[in-house]
Amino acid sequence: MSSEEKTLTARGLRVEFGLPGGRVARAVDGVDLDVAPGEIVALAGESGCGKTTLARTLLGLEKATGGTVAFDGVPLRYSTRALKAYRRQVQLVLQDPSGALNPRHTVYDAVAEGLRIHGITDDEPGRVADALSRAGLRPPEQFFLAYPHELSGGQRQRVVIAGALVLEPSILVADEPVASLDASVRGEILSLLLRLKEEQGLGALVITHDLGLAWSIADRIAIMYLGRIVEQGPVEQVLTAPRHPYTRALVSVLPASPVLREAVAEPIVLAGELPDASKIPGGCRFRPRCQEVASGNALPVLHQCTGEDLKVLGPEADSHQVACHLDRSLHGDARIGV
Amino acid sequence: MTLLEFKDLRVTYTGSRGRLPALRGVDLTVEAGRTLGIAGESGCGKSTLAMAVLRLLPKTAEVSGEILLDGEDLLAMGWGRLRAVRWTGASIVFQGAMHSLNAVHRIGRQVAEPILVHEKGTTPAQAAKRAEALLERVGLPASRMRSYPHELSGGQRQRVMIAMALACDPQLVIADEATTALDVMVQAQVLQLISGLVTERGVGLMMISHDLSVLSSVCDEAAVMYAGRVVERGPAHEVFANARHPYSAALGAAFPVIGDPAARKNPGGLAGDPPDPVRLPEGCSFRPRCAVAVERCGEDSPELLEVGPKRVSACFVAQEGMPVVL
């Protein structure tokens, strides 16, 4: 268990869903992850890689099949009361502010809702005003009686964030916080998340399929593939010197990526799509799509790629870790990192 | 060869709040075998532009100017001729394939339908064969003919939409945010496919997106729109890398280049919202959000003028040769 205070931790986390025909989808298949106050961690991967399931499990919306979720060293329990207490510390920020706000509730009601659910009655207007101004809606009183349709897209997303901040959580979990927003509003919301971290020491786990977002705000990044984290480490290292073939492919197809121009002559466009989570390949789960296997570069370690499972990457914050047999044969043990 | 040409296109909607100018004089051309990218925020008029080509705008929209497809004015066309032009002359790939495909019909039938409707004398068997070939061309196995839309992933559905758009061999394809909702890798697959079709078959492509970085990697030329007007035009990678209008610069900065130290922990963006089309500001419509505005910007509305080789910009500051970013 991490000794750090107020840290959200996952250890050996697994989430499985039963499918018709007795098949089992392993949506999250062994994940270790830490999110501490004062840091932004990006969790990136394609649709279907399990990143949203992982987020829901960290919030207690989904029960883990195996492993633990803990906050501040205390394992998460699923009684209504325990969950309520937990969610005062770990709050969700939804994507798509137009869907997350009730069009018939004023901004004040939208933000105060969390307080009412948690039975916090002292100084409600003061707390709402404080949350709104922390989310950059100033002066807050001017927004109390506004309805969502009277606000801009950026302001609406700020109201959603204020609704999370009003309970004074330590950690925010944001699922694609800017995916539905316009290019110009996107920067506004990302700057807000960055400021909340820097000025108020908030921690955040940002789930996204957008690596540019990680470059804009995150300290660390974890790349998820088919239920596992396959590469993680400081953003600068993972995105400018990616080592896992999957991360290398992802970075190479980004428009105008300088990494592409220097390190790879051609963008690596992987064929096919993410396999079904009920049919995770044995050995290395990325092998069927791996460009190193296809090109023969991985030949010396191919027996490991096909037959030997990779270790779950540890949660050590500062090391660059890669779950790849080829990388291990070139760089030594993945856990040694940097 | 010029395939599509917009000449002083103006579109005005009439709503409960009065007249709403969506396009305020747009001049653009698309060449055969070339790709033109159109970038801008929601409400800048870029989708109106796409809809205007196939005359899919609501009846209340007032349209003036000319849209020439291969020299023929689409706005003056009779309905019979227009029907023939849709699909065979020009076709659109919309965003959100989920909603554009019919949920209760098999993929094969939906791809074959435009062929059966538009090419008289085609038998259903021939159309099915063509549909199969189209699916294969977009990288889907022929067995997918029998699938329903819900059985496909988002990327596969978007490929089906592209296959449909190509069904009648159009000269012009318009892709309206066709890859926006897709994952990076699937987006790369679809973009590669689209670019291949442009070079192989010489179709003209007009690609609409809010992501200038995607346009810069796929398109030859890019036009940036703001409040119903083109504010900058030029070679796509140059518009992205070295904008000559402050709005293009802000739009480009919203999607950082990974590895760029200036963008690290410094999300770019643009405060404020696009102007209300009913009450456009005096002078340059971008002035209220502009960091480099000068006095003249509040008085006159800038025209699109040359600011470099093949570059035009509607910004007084750029036209003076001054930098457009602080």
Question: What structural class do you assign from the helix and strand content of chain B?
Answer: alpha/beta
Q: Would you report the number of β strands of chain A?
A: 11
Oligomer: heterodimer
| Helical percentage of chain B | 25-40%
Instruction: Determine the N-to-C terminus distance of chain A.
Output: 23 Å
CATH architect. name of the largest domain in chain B? 3-Layer(aba) Sandwich
User: How many angstroms does the end-to-end distance of chain B come to?
Assistant: 40 Å
Q: What does the largest sheet of chain B look like? A: 8 strands, mixed
Physical arrangement of strands within the biggest beta sheet of chain A = 6-7-8-3-9-10-11
Total of DSSP H or I helical runs spanning 4+ residues of chain A: 14
Largest interface: A-B, 42 and 46 residues
Given the C-alpha coordinates, what overall shape of chain B results? globular
